[in-house]
Each structure stands twice: as C-alpha cells, then as structure tokens.
Amino acid sequence: MIKVGIIGGAGYTAGELLRVLAGHPETDVAFVHSTSNAGNSIDSVHKDLVGDIEGDFTDQLNFDVDVLFICSGHGHSRTFVEGNDIPAGVKIIDLSNEYRLKADADGFVYGLPELNLGAIKKATKIANPGCFATAIQLGILPLAANGELNEDVHVNAITGSTGAGQNPSKTSHFSWRNNNVSIYKAFSHQHLGEINQSIQQLQSDYGHEVKFLPVRGNFPRGIFASLYTKCTLSEEEVIEMYREFYKDAAFVHVLDYAPDMKQVVNTNKCLIHVEKHGDTVLVTSCIDNLVKGASGQAVQNMNLMFGLDQKTGLQLKSVGF
After folding, report:
1. Does the keyword Amino-acid biosynthesis apply (predicted)?
2. How far apart are CA 321 and CA 313, in angstroms?
C-alpha cells in the first residue's frame, strides 16, 4: 500500500483528494494535516465523506509516508517544503502554482500526463497543473505538437465557484455568484505562464499570444473552455491530428459532437470537440476543475510515479442529467 500524507487538509482540493483516495485500492491515508482544524473529525469539514473517511485532522507532521500531497494553497508550498526536513524517499505532489514554471521548479516536474508522461514516471516531485491551464492546454497542444499554431489563440473559459477556493470572498458567496456571470483577470490570468511554457515545449517558434478571458460561472464545479485560432488544415485533418495525439491518453476523449460540462463533473475526464469554420478552428475542452483540474490529476500523477495504471482509483462517474 502507498502511505499518503496530506498537507492543508481542510480545503476543496484536499476534500476532493480524500474522496478519490477513499476509492483507491492501493493507498492508505496516514494523516491529514490542518492547523486550523486540528482535533476535528475529517468528515465534520468534508461532510460528503461521512462513512467514507474516518479519523481527525492533526497539526503534527509525520514523514513516515511514501507520498505527500500539498494542498495548502498558493503562497504556502515553498515555505513548507523549504522549512521541513522531508526525507529524500518521500515523493511530493504540490497542487499550488509555486513550482509550475521552469524558472521556479527546483526539481519539480510539470505534471500534465498528456505532455510529460515519461518524466512524471521518473519524478520524485510533481508540480500539479492549474485547472484552467489543464483545460486550455489539452485543447491546443495537438496543434502545437504539429507546428500548427501560427496565430493568436483566443480563449473564453467559464469556471465554477470552487475554483476560487474555500475561503469566502465577495465574488464567491452565494448571493453574488448565483444568477451571475463576470469576467476577471482578462488577458492576465496566472495560468498563462504555464500554458505558454507548454506551447513552447512543443512548438518553440510560437511567437503569438494566448488571449484568455476567464469567466466566473454560477455553478460550483467544472470548466468549459472555447478556443479558436486560424488554421489552414481541413476539419478532417485537424480531427485526425487530435485523435492521434490522444490515442493513448487515459482520460482525454475526442468526441464527434460538442460536449456538455455535466459529462465531466465528478470525473477525471477531459472531453474535446473540434470543428472548422472557414479558416478558423474551434476547439471545445471541458473538465472538472477539482478532479482533472486538481486532485484527480494529482492521483493520476501518483499512479504514474508508483508504477500503477493511470486509471487506478479514478473510475469516477459523472453526475448525469
């Protein structure tokens, strides 16, 4: 069994991680760390886990584990890693944005399996991708891999309120978010750095921009991204390119119809649809921001690091209609 420790256990990503691990046949959760909830039962905070996860949060660290998931949120992971004597044999999967860029990586491998599969299998430290970054990259990487990104890429993507984290803010509480839609961080979202880095990894001569409009949605979870750019290939050629790029991908499915977001909610899937309109290719990409966009992808990376099948513990079902 893989012994798991979780740091920052009270937030949405940790709760989702525990939900996934509760059904994982090869893991044992050794401890869930939270200074703010130490002594409280885990299911008193993550109430959907009643009957699935037993035990209490602890403020004590225990490095007698095989892997640490750091779910502390942005701005805390590096302090934790550098401030603790973590044994070299303990693998680390960080869900924050602190190690995603190569300039800041300090030995962390960028954990997008569809891009860095071989490196992830050999890694001891993983920087888990951002949720928007996952949906957008999976939507455009086949074009980059084939040298077919030759213009700006325009992206409009809407995300659920859980993407803002568990701590309440003026744009996440119910009375503001419900029956409301708004744009934020237009053209300047923090995930653009890792998106551009991955494009450059596949198509080093790409000199244009990803023009990204992030949108707050009035639903809890899910990301629905629409991407378009100029492309001289036929629709059939582009679709075949995507099918070839993802032929061995465990969770990416290229559909012959436009997907609905509910098809991916509660799953680790990414559903993609491609169509041409004149000289423009339109790509739809949708994921669950907490699963494929965070904790599910983290478990997928753990599986790869420990030599397991990628799908182990991730046979999750959508909410249906």
Report:
1. yes
2. 23
pLDDT number for residue 206:
96
pLDDT of the residue at 220:
83
Superfamily of domain 2-128+292-305: NAD(P)-binding Rossmann-like Domain (3.40.50.720)
Which phi and psi angles does 223 have, rounded to 5°? -130, 130
- Cα separation, 202 vs 141, whole angstroms: 8
> Which class is domain 131-289?
alpha beta
**109-136 pLDDT per residue, tens:** 999 999 999 999 999 999 999 999 999 9
- Give the Cβ contact number of residue 317 at 10 Å: 8
Residue 293 to residues 57, 96, 161, 298: CA-CA distances in angstroms? 25, 12, 13, 9
pTM exceeding the 0.85 threshold for the entire prediction: yes
Task: Give the separation between CA 103 and CA 116, rounded to whole angstroms.
Answer: 17
Q: Which residue type is seen at 63?
A: F
- Spell out a b/e string for 54-89, using b for 16 or more CB atoms within 10 Å of the CB, else e: eeebbeeeeeebbbbbbbbbeebbbebbeeeebeee
Q: Annotated active-site positions, please?
A: 131
